[in-house]
Structure formats: C-alpha cells, structure tokens
Amino acid sequence: MANKYISTTLPYVNADPHIGAAYEFVVADAMARYWRLLGHDVFFNTGTDEHGQKIAQKADEIGQSRQEYVDHYAGQFEKLRETLDLSCDNFIRTTDKSHMAAAQELWKRCNKAGDIYKKKYEGLYCVGCERFLNKTDLIDGLCPDHKTEPECVEEENYFFKLSNYQEYLEEYLSADNSILPDWRRNEALNFVKSGLEDFSISREKERLDWGVPVPDDDNQVMYVWFDALTNYISTLGWPEDNDGNFSKFWKEGETVQVAGKDQVRFQSIMWQAMLKSAGIGATNSIVYHGFINSGGHKMSKSLGNVINPYDLVEKYGTDSTRYLLLRHVHPFEDTDVTWEKLDEWYTANLVNGLGNLTARITKMAENYGVLYESEFSECVEKGSVSEFGLQNTLDDIWKDIGNLDEYIQREEPFKKIKTDEDAAKKDIIYLLTHLEGIAGKLSPFMPETSKIILSAIKDNKKPENLFARLS
User: Fold this and answer.
1) Domain boundary residue among 229, 264, 289?
2) Is residue 318 part of a domain?
3) pLDDT at position 141
4) Residue 393 sits in which domain range?
5) Which of these, 38, 39, 296, 403, is most buried using a 10 Å CB contact count?
C-alpha cells in the first residue's frame, strides 16, 4: 500500500461558495475515499486563500476589518466539510500563523538559492487576477477574464527568476502524468517552450498591506499567489514536520493536486519552479477540470444564474448533490448546468433509478423472507476508478442499475413466487448480491447512501425512500 496526498486549490474568500468549488471538493473527496478503501494511507487537504488586494478592497468597502471579513467567508467554506460530507484531513487557512511562517521560510530558501531579486517595474495590473498582465494577454484592451481595464502600476517589487527553470520545467512537463488531461499538459509544455519571464512576487505595503510580510523588508508584502501556493506543503507541517506528515506524504508519497483549467500557469509552472528553487520535490500529478456554466453563460450575480452548493444540498440532499456533480459534470471539459437539468437528472437517475430499484429488491426480500448471507467486503475493486474518470465509473454503475431493472422485468420474481418459490428466491438473492455490489461501488461517491443500502440488505428490511420526489 502507498501514501497518497490529494489537495484542492484554496478558494479565494471574496464571495460565498459556488458550485465550481463544491465540484472540486467532492472530486478530491471521492478519490481520497476510493484510495482509503484500497488500503492506502491518505492525506486530503483543502482550505481557503485569504490575502490580497481584492479582499482588502471588499473589506474596506463594507467597513469591516480584513480579519473579520475573511473569518466570515472562511466559515462559509469550512461549513462545506459537513454539508458535502468531505473527509478532509486538514482545512488550512492562509491567515494561519503556521502557514504564514511556512510561506516566509519558502521565500528565504528561494532567496538563498539566488532566485529572488528586486527591481522597479511598470506594468498593467488586474486587481481581479491579482497579477500583472502583458499587452498580449488583453482582448480589446481588457482583461479577458474580468472584462476590466487593468491599472498602469509603477513600483519596486521582488521578482522570482522563473527563467532559471526553463529546462527543468520542460523536463517536468514531459512526464506523462504531470498533468491530466494530456492535451492540457501539451498546452503547458508549449507555453514553457515559448520562453518564460520572471514574475513579481511582492507588492509595496503602502499600496497593499493585507498579506504575508516579506522577510527582512517591512515595506513589502508577498504576492498572494506566492503565499497561497505554499499551502500544499504547509498543511503537512512543513518545514518543521513535527508529525512527519511532510516526509510521509510529500517526500515518500504520491502527490496529486486538483485545480481549475485557469490555474495551469500557477500550479504547474510557477509553483513547480518555486518548489525546485527551495529544494523540494515536484507535485507528481495535477488534474485540471473545466468550468461549470449555466444556461450557456458563465455564472455571475448580474445574470442571476449562480448556483450555490448550499441551495443544492437543501433541495436534493448531500449524497444526491455529490452524485449530480460527479456524474453530470465533465471531468475535463466545461459543463452547462441549470436547475431544470439538475431536476431531470435527480428524478430520472436517483428517484426513479437507484431509489426505486433499492425499494423493489429489498421489499421483495422482506416480504418473501429471503435469507441472504452477505460476504461483502468494503474493499473496492482496484482500478475501478482510474485517471480521475469518475464520470465514467458512475456511468458504469448506472448501467448495472439498468441491468438489474431489466432482470426484474424479464424474470418477474414477484409473480414467480406464486408458482416456483425456490426459483423466485434465487432470483431475489441474485438481485441482492448485485445491489450489494452497486452499493459498494458507490461508497466513495455517495457514502451515506451506500451505508443505507448495505444496512437494508443486511437487516432484510426495506429502507425509507432514499430520494424524496420533488414537489
């Protein structure tokens, strides 16, 4: 068995949680649960990113202290641990003192390696992106992501010598599993081959005072990305590593990060160069997912199409929300999601699908006194989930559900029981055996539903309806 580490990115706490963050959380959670079922020792990390100019401006606008502001929104994200039934081992906040100390130590090590220098710089700065943009990044003079005109900023900042790591990053990104999917790895590799520019890693404190202080310079704070990226190792107790988690899971384990498709430059280029500079091993794999849109548009408050994960759970329940995200959101491409589609998927596949099948089989077993001795083991078949193909795995499970429905329609044990009791009971045992297998396979995805079905089979009793019909 192996040591496995998995982490989401840290959502930026300038707004309430959205469906995209929820999707990333449940993907990482499903993989962590699956690995644990296989017997691996797993560390699952998530948390919140809490520094930067956007947060400072938002807090100032509403007249709240920066700490009060981030405490509120961090709380909204941390509540998702229970709401989405996340099995994370740590919820890290970038305002944690231990994390801030780790970010400063990473800075010192990169500086000792000769990769940090200070210079005056003039450039186009997007507050929304929290970074400088090149003119070639703009579309009609605007930031392509935020549709705002960047500010022209002139100041003295520290820079990281990303250009020192051209050859290293080309070699790193040439490894097959460094990025999933593979076509996005090729995009990253081509970007690196086109030439790398050093990037700014600090801001003048006079302009931005909400951040981790730069070591030995009271006039500068760390660029939010340099600070936030450090979470992937600070969560493991780096640099002191008093509990041995950094050695166990990062140095000796398999490391995986899950991120959105807009994170490639930060996670697979900047972060990997920072790690190399500090003498720390690279992330083994980074998995990039697409965006969730609604009604053909990017979700935004102005369009009124934002879907909140708390609203999802209130309407459908925790396990149903996990199912809807994991099966009906594509693992790598953008996905369009609307309330109408969610209702359709929920009713067809859960209420009329898994829920109805479970009720029919367990009710027959209860009514006809079928004694079923389970030999079920909680271990899931190795290889049933590979390369984050969670959607494909759930598709296969629902094929199994469809096959059992067809078996009931074809064999009609509820009629056969009147003329051939032994044959009917054999049919029901066959159905219970395969329903038990379905419940086992569902464990990483819908853990509570899996437990309910397995208990119903063991107790020979039909459970309460698994999924309520929508009113």
Assistant:
1) 289
2) no
3) 77
4) 338-459
5) 38
Query: What whole-number distance in Å separates Cα of residue 297 and Cα of residue 301?
Result: 12
417: which 2 tokens? 């029981």
Do 72 and 211 belong together in one domain?
yes
Q: Are residues 277 and 346 in the same domain?
A: no
Helix (H) or strand (E) holding 154: strand 151-160
Peptide linkage before 331 cis (omega within 30 of 0):
no
Counted domains in the chain:
2
- How many Cβ atoms from other residues are within 10 Å of residue 401's Cβ? 19
Distance between CA atoms of 27 and 325, rounded to whole angstroms?
9
Measure the CA dihedral 223/227/229/231, to 10°.
-170
Peptide linkage before 150 cis (omega within 30 of 0): no
The span from the CA of 448 to the CA of 439, in Å, is 10
The domain boundary residue, chosen from 289, 313, 330? 289
- 77 touches 21 (CB < 8 A): yes
Residue 73: which CATH number? 3.40.50.620
Mean pLDDT by 10 residues, the chain (471 residues): 96 92 97 94 98 93 96 97 98 98 98 96 74 74 77 87 98 96 96 95 92 96 96 98 98 98 97 98 97 83 79 98 97 95 98 98 95 68 66 95 98 95 95 95 96 94 96 87
Q: What's the one-letter identity of residue 22?
A: A
pLDDT of 380 reads 60
Please report the sign of the dihedral spanned by the C-alpha atoms of residue 28, residue 33, residue 36, residue 41.
positive
What's the Cα-to-Cα distance from 259 to each of 98, 159, 219, rounded to whole Å? Answer: 24, 25, 32
Residues in the chain: 471
pTM of the model: 0.92
- Are 203 and 223 a contacting pair, CB within 8 Å? yes
What is the rounded distance in angstroms from the CA atom of residue 35 to the CA atom of residue 16? 30
pLDDT of the residue at 39 = 93
CA distance 182 to 151: 36
Helix or strand (DSSP H, E) at 403 = helix 390-411
By the 8 A CB rule, do 432 and 358 touch?
Answer: no
Looking up residue 441, the CATH number of its domain turns out to be 1.10.730.10
